[in-house]
């Protein structure tokens, strides 16, 4: 007889193929990145925004080095949580930074959900968009929750098919956008918009990292991927390379079909705006449907990975856990908690602030990963200390530029991020002290 009240986390070995892992990574990256970040990066960096995408790819390339080395040595369903535990032990440092990663990924889900709402509404002439965008986002999160209840095999099949449709559609958009343009010229800022600056470029580069950070979802399914010691690293590298090529193509298509002020004005749906001058209403419909597919696939993939990460933290006894009367395993409970947090963020935060919180949390965690490998594990995982030092320096540069711009333009979001980190740190310190006392 099956024990329906079994609370043990269940990780099915060999339940995700290499292709399925790549689909999970690209699903999150492409869903969040090119659809919503282009306009926000243009708003900060001005005419330098295409270069900011390239700079973000370079930083992520150095950043991925630590994750590939760690995943080859320690494939785990907990991914980043396990990497931090290997570097720092089961203590406050591990718990704090693992939760920063968890919340940054939940924030990314909300970012995807609101992007879904923004693009969907481009098909309709409706008022009160401020209410409809979060409403549609909430609906998508609930749909993704139901898909995730169905198990790994359905998630892999869903993500794989969505990934193929999405990549094919976005490449088609980029090729048509480039070929159909009257002139091949990148916005230079002469028609308006912010002037280029070093701080703005660095801040936009930090935002661009959000377009690539989805590769970390692969690490959270390490023990479930076939031949994990080889395939986790392969999936990370292939996912990043695919996205670099796609972002370069689509970013070029947007830049040569819209002026800088037009990109900024349509920052939450810039691809849909770029499709109109290329292919009229048919282009708009095609792009919006593509965005709907991409964001839906991204959220399904992200929830799958994030809930497993929180389940691993619970199993490691690094975070408090309550069943709240729910039946089933811990994984099912963490799935519920993850979706509920995503629903709250989707309902009450706009895209710009969601992205800002996500990148601050992520970069702080990312620096901790690199430092842990550099300080404690470089010999064990055979990592080059010079590459690790460069990765830390690039992260600090991007984070510093981003904070500088946000302190000037939106200090509230910086205050919320700092307050959030202090609350997480204090809460974890109290929990771990209480656990040791018990």
TrEMBL record:
Gene3D superfamilies: Amino acid/polyamine transporter I. It is a multi-pass membrane protein. It is found in: Cell membrane. It holds the Pfam family AA_permease_2. The chain crosses the membrane at residues 16-36, 48-68, 88-111, 131-149, 161-181, 196-215, 236-260, 284-311, 332-349, 355-374, 386-405, 411-432. Keywords: Cell membrane, Membrane, Transmembrane, Transmembrane helix. InterPro entries: AA/rel_permease1 (IPR002293), APC_superfamily (IPR050367). PANTHER family: AMINO ACID TRANSPORTER-RELATED, INNER MEMBRANE TRANSPORT PROTEIN YBAT. This is APC family permease. It comes from Guyparkeria halophila. The lineage of its organism: Bacteria, Pseudomonadati, Pseudomonadota, Gammaproteobacteria, Chromatiales.
